Each structure stands twice: as structure tokens, then as C-alpha cells.
Amino acid sequence: MNSPSTEDKPPFSFRLIATDGMARRGEITTPHGVVRTPAFMPVGTQGTVKAMFMDDVRATGADVVLGNTYHLMLRPGAERVAALGGLHRFSTWPHTILTDSGGFQVMSLAQLRKLDEKGVTFQSHIDGRRYELTPERSIEIQGLLGSDIQMQLDECVRLPADPGEVERGMRLSLRWAERSRQQFELMRGPQKGQGLYGIVQGGDVPALRVASATGLQEIPFEGYSVGGLAVGEPQAVMLEMLRITTPVLPEDKPRYLMGVGTPDDIVESVARGIDQFDCVMPTRAGRHGLAYTRFGKINLKNARHAEDPRPLDEESACPAARDYSRAYLHHLVRTGETLGAMLLTWANVAYYQTLMQGIRDAIEAQRYAAFVAETKRGWEIGDLPAR
Known about the structure:
Elements (H helix, E strand, L loop, with lengths): L12 E8 L2 E8 L2 E5 L1 E4 L11 H6 L4 E5 H6 L3 H6 L3 H5 L4 E5 L2 H7 L1 E5 L4 E4 L6 E4 L1 H11 L3 E3 L11 H24 L8 E6 L5 H12 L5 E4 L8 H11 L9 E3 L5 H8 L5 E4 L1 H7 L2 E4 L2 E4 L19 H4 L3 H9 L3 H27 L3 H14 L6
Parallel strand pairs: 4-14, 5-6, 10-11, 11-12, 12-13, 13-14
Antiparallel strand pairs: 1-2, 2-3, 7-8, 8-9, 15-16
Helix pairs in contact: 6-7, 7-8, 11-14, 13-14, 14-15
């Protein structure tokens, strides 16, 4: 029997299973599987979740990982990845992949960048080579990578910023959204079962957030991202923008808060209607000796762990958190051993996925507020000293 062609893939879809207040439990279906939401997506910037094997990432409970257009277009190149079978095969991750547009990295990493209506021209932070990234090229790259969920190219204005500058960036992002959609249709993304997300911009100006969310729905998209937050503003401002924005978005489409965040950011954002998250925090923290646990953050660099025989969490399903003593992890961190970064990254990604499963279960059980209170109480009690 012949396998179905990419043109026979079922359409991208989202199913809302349960709600508890504004918190939502759902499922996203893509050609590479089902993503249970709320979902945290480990960041695999360059086709790898740093310091982890992909099988271990999957074993933590992750349904989807994130790849980055900017980094993959520079190395090894989208055309090369496509020739080698696409990002799923290249990275040995046969499950759902989301790619971001590369816009944020162009704004934050690239040298001598120039932005205009057409797109962004910039010099690579690696070798100074000159590139042009337009809405069309961003979608083309994501299509070559073969990601299941793709992002429009947008401009992320860092906060705080003048309201006039915020509106300029939001209007430009809307125009780029329409061009991104046209390219996505040209590349037959819907026929391949892929989804394209529009990105809500508008900074910390409520009216601009609403205008952006409304304008994107006129295009429209398979899902909607909230961008331009967690870029320097206080958490209270981010949460207020979410409270204003998510009710304007369609109930039958997934909502993704880009680049967020801490466990506290996640539980509070779920309470305001967000379905998807990504952040480098658990992997970056692991490489720097910091563990996230149900007891809060544990800094393994601290000398107090040098003779502590306890694991990070004896109840964890993750071997890195359950089977290795804090004394050993402290030793690995202090001596700069690669294994320390690997174990703590593994433990952190596992904790984030355990948190997400707890969130999903609590929403279905109609006890989300109680779950958040219990979780925060555990963080506040903290890392108890050895007995």
C-alpha cells in the first residue's frame, strides 16, 4: 500500500476539551501527532534541545519542540535541511515541530540591521554575511524545514517604548501578516496539514492589542500568538495585556504566548486563556546550575549542597531529578562537568512537563485555582534542609 502524500494530510485542527474560568484544556492535531494543551514547548533553536537527547525530551512528556528560522537559515541552511528530509528527520524528532519566524532574533542578535516595508536586511552575528528576511522568505524557510506550526514574520518592539513606535510596529506586523498568509497558501501549507499563526502586537497599549487581534482575524490564521511581551515589562503588565487580548481571540483556535517563561508566568497565563508556551529558561538554567522543582528554584552552585545526599525530588519520574544526589550534582556543577548541565537540563524540562500535566488535569477536574494555590504554596515552602 502506498503511503499518503503530503497533499493528503488531515487539516490542522484544535479541539477544546474543557474550560475552568479562562483556563482551557485542548488538543492540537498536526501531521506529526497530537499536542495536549496547555503545552510547554522545549526550545530546540538549532535543531537540538541543548544538552538533551530527543528521546529523553519525548520521555519527559513533550509533544512539540520549537525550532528557529533565523539560526537554521544561517546554519546549516533551510535548503540543506530540506534536501536531507526536513527538520523532523534531520533532528530525529518525529513529533510536532513549531518554528518561529526569525524576526525576534534578527532584532536582538543580528548586526547592522535595516528594517523597511519589504522586510529586514541584516548581517549574520556569526560571520557578518548579509541576508534579507521578508515575510515571504520567512515562510519559505519554514516550509523547507517542514514545520507543522509556522509563524508570520513580525516586528517585536521592545518595551518600554513610545506609543507611536508601538503602533508603527503593530501596523507593519499586520501588513506582514497578510503577506505571510499569502506565501503560506502559495506553498500549500493548509493542504500539507500545517498551521500558520498570526502574532498579536501592540506593546502595553490595550487599544493597539485589541486592534491587532481583530485585524489578524480578518486574514485569518489557524492559531494566534501573543508577541512583544516578556521583553522587559513587569509581570503585572504582561498579565494585564493577556487579560485584554485573549477574550478578543477566537475560542476555537489555539493561543500561544511567545517566549514565556517562568513556572509562575505559565500558571498565571493559563488562567488568562493561553494554550502554548516556549522559553529557553529551563534549558539555560540547567546549563548554569539552577534546577526548577516543585520546591521552587534550587541553585546547585551553593555550598550547602556539598554534603546533601537527597535527590532534587525523590517523587519525580525523571531519573535526573530522582536518582542523583544533590551533593553529586553540586560536584558536577562546581567542576564544570558536562554531565551536570545534561542532568539539570533534563530535570528542568521534566519538571516543566510535569507542571503542564498537572495544569491539564486540574482544568479537566474544574479545580485550576486550587491547583495554582497548592503549587505556589510548594514553591513558597521551598527547598527543605536535609534532615
